[in-house]
Amino acid sequence: MAKDDGKVTWKESIWNPRTGEFIGRTASSWGLIILFYVAFYIFLAAFFCLTMYALLMTLEDNRPKHQDRLVVPGLMMRPRSGNPFLEIDYMMEETESWDMYVQALDEFLSPYNDSEQAKKNYECVSDKYFFQSDSGSVKNYPKRSCQFHRSILGECSGLTDRTYGYGDGQPCIIVKLNRVIGMLPGGKDGEPPFVTCAPKIYGVSEDDTETTEDTDKMGQVMYFPPNGTFNLMYYPYYGKKEQVNYSQPLVAIKFLNLTTNTDINVECKVTAPGINAVNVKDKFGLKVVFRLRVNSRN
Ligand SMILES: *[C@@H]1O[C@H](CO)[C@@H](O)[C@H](O)[C@H]1NC(C)=O
Ligand SMILES: *[C@@H]1O[C@H](CO)[C@@H](O)[C@H](O)[C@H]1NC(C)=O
Ligand SMILES: *[C@@H]1O[C@H](CO)[C@@H](O)[C@H](O)[C@H]1NC(C)=O
Ligand SMILES: *[C@@H]1O[C@H](CO)[C@@H](O)[C@H](O)[C@H]1NC(C)=O
C-alpha cells in the first residue's frame, strides 16, 4: 500500500525518474540556485573590493594612519642581553665574558660611522627642530635626515677605546628613543630631552628613592654627548618611507667608578618636556632598567 500512494523511496529521493528531480529539485531549479549563488558571490567580492579601495584612498601614502601603540616612545638600550630582564654581568679579567658586549656595540654603531653618515645624511643646524613640510600638493620627498656621527660618543664611540671601557670596569651603554612619527620631544619651546641614570631600588613604595649607599655603588657616570641630550635637529621624524636614511640620535653612558662584585640596578630615563607627563608613569615608556654587575678578582 505504502508503495503505491506516491511516497518516494530512498532511491527516488536521490534521483526520481518520474518527475526528473535530483535530490528533490528539477534541473532548472538547480540551475537557478547555482546562478543565484554565483551572482551573489560576485556581488560580495565586488563590494569587498570597493570598500577596500575606498579605505585605501583615505590613507596617506607615506604615513601610517594609526600609531596609537607608539605614542609613548620606549627607551631602548644597547648592548641588549639577558632575558627577560636586561643585564650586563661580566668578569673584568676574562675577555670572553665581555667580548659579546663589545661586538654588539660595534655592530650597532657601524651605521653611525662618520664616513657612512656623511655619505647618506645631511648636516643640519643643531639645537632646533628640522621641519620639512610639504607645500600644498608638492611633496617634500624624500626628506633629508641629519647626520649622527659616532665620534660624538667620545670614549663610548668605540673609536678611541675599542673595548668601550668593558676591560677597565668602566662599561658604556647606549640608549635611544624609539621612533615616533611627528613627535616633538622638546615641546613647543624646544627644550632638548636628556637622559639621566640613577640606581634603582626595589621595595617599599612606588616612588623608591635611592640611598647614598647605592649612589656610591654606582659611582659617577659620564654622558655623551654632554648632558646626555638628544639634539632637537633629529625631530620631527617623518616615517621610514619619507626619511629613508634616518638615524636615531644616541646617548652613551659611561660608568666611571662602579663597585665591583656587586649587583647594581640602574634606571636610565629621559626627561622630555614634549612628551605627555602622564605617560611617564607607563612602565615601559621613557625609561629602561637593567642590572649591572662587574666582577673582578682584585
Ligand atoms: C665602521 O667603522 C668600523 C671601525 O672604524 C669598521 O670596523 C666597520 O666596518 C665600519 N662599518 C661600516 C658599515 O662602514
Ligand atoms: C640616502 O643615502 C644614499 C646613500 O646611501 C644617498 O644616495 C641618498 O641620496 C640618501 N637619501 C636622502 C634622502 O638623503
Ligand atoms: C670611587 O668609589 C669609591 C667607593 O665608592 C670611592 O671611595 C672613591 O672616592 C670613588 N672615586 C672617585 C674618583 O669618585
Ligand atoms: C649642560 O647643562 C648645563 C646646566 O644645565 C649647561 O650650563 C651647559 O651649557 C650644558 N652643556 C651642553 C653642552 O649642553
TrEMBL record:
Q: Does the UniProt entry include the keyword Transmembrane helix?
A: yes
Is Transmembrane helix among this UniProt entry's keywords? yes
InterPro entries, A to Z: Na/K_ATPase_sub_beta, Na/K_ATPase_sub_beta_sf
Q: Where are the transmembrane segments?
A: 30-56
Cellular localization per UniProt? Cell membrane; Membrane
Topology relative to the lipid bilayer, per the entry, is: Single-pass type II membrane protein
The family database entries (PROSITE patterns) matched by this protein are listed as: ATPASE_NA_K_BETA_2
GO molecular function term, any single one: ATPase activator activity
Q: Which UniProt keywords apply?
A: Cell membrane, Disulfide bond, Glycoprotein, Ion transport, Membrane, Potassium, Potassium transport, Signal-anchor, Sodium, Sodium transport, Sodium/potassium transport, Transmembrane, Transmembrane helix, Transport
Note the superkingdom of the native organism. Answer: Eukaryota
Gene Ontology CC entries for this record: sodium:potassium-exchanging ATPase complex
Give a GO biological-process term.
potassium ion import across plasma membrane
Family assignment from sequence similarity = Belongs to the X(+)/potassium ATPases subunit beta family.
**The protein's role, per its UniProt record:** This is the non-catalytic component of the active enzyme, which catalyzes the hydrolysis of ATP coupled with the exchange of Na(+) and K(+) ions across the plasma membrane.
Q: Would you tell me the protein name for this molecule?
A: Sodium/potassium-transporting ATPase subunit beta
* Phylogenetic placement of the source organism: Eukaryota, Metazoa, Chordata, Craniata, Vertebrata
